[in-house]
Design a protein that fits this description.
Length: 163
């Protein structure tokens, strides 16, 4: 598995309203997960692997795509993925809510609204990336996007029942 990250935690903090004092260790696993769960299915294996290889080798071939389209999509998908786990922790005694003397926990309804708004931002930027990649100009710049080895989770779980 490739451990390369397309963007940094600092990028995420600059794009979103996540506080600067959030521990990097709390967000980093969710950035890697977001690359696999949200970005890879959208761009396909070939383009994703090419972007990761380029970033790992210090290349600049995909800088425009990553900085102008993938960055916001990854920032919001990372935030969306991490939010519930930043509020709750799994510890020896079970799942516990994080708490401090200077804060109060959000209610379930408040968290639902919060989560929905982060998800809306994530969806917007993922659609924006997809719309861009579907343009003729982007297909010329990123021919790997058009390959047939894309992951398509919407169509991969169907079964034929013989009816």
């Amino acid at each position: 598995m490739n451990d390369t990250l397309l963007i940094t935690i600092e990028d995420i903090k600059n794009v979103t309203s996540i506080s600067d004092n959030v521990d990097v260790a709390q967000l980093e696993p969710f950035l890697a997960t977001s690359q696999d769960m949200y970005l890879r299915p959208l761009v396909g294996d070939a383009l994703m692997d090419a972007m990761l290889d380029s970033v790992a080798s210090g290349g600049t071939g995909y800088t425009n795509l990553i900085q102008n389209f993938c960055l916001n999509a990854l920032a919001y998908s990372t935030w969306y993925s991490a939010a519930p786990f930043m509020h709750m922790k799994t510890q020896k005694k079970g799942i516990v809510l994080q708490n401090s003397d200077n804060s109060t926990n959000v209610t379930t309804d408040e968290f639902s609204i919060y989560s929905q708004r982060v998800e809306n931002n994530m969806t917007f930027y993922l659609r924006r990336l997809k719309t861009y990649l579907d343009t003729a100009a982007a297909k010329v710049l990123y021919p790997l996007y058009a390959t047939t080895d894309q992951i398509n989770p919407q169509n991969s779980s169907s079964i034929f029942l013989g009816f």
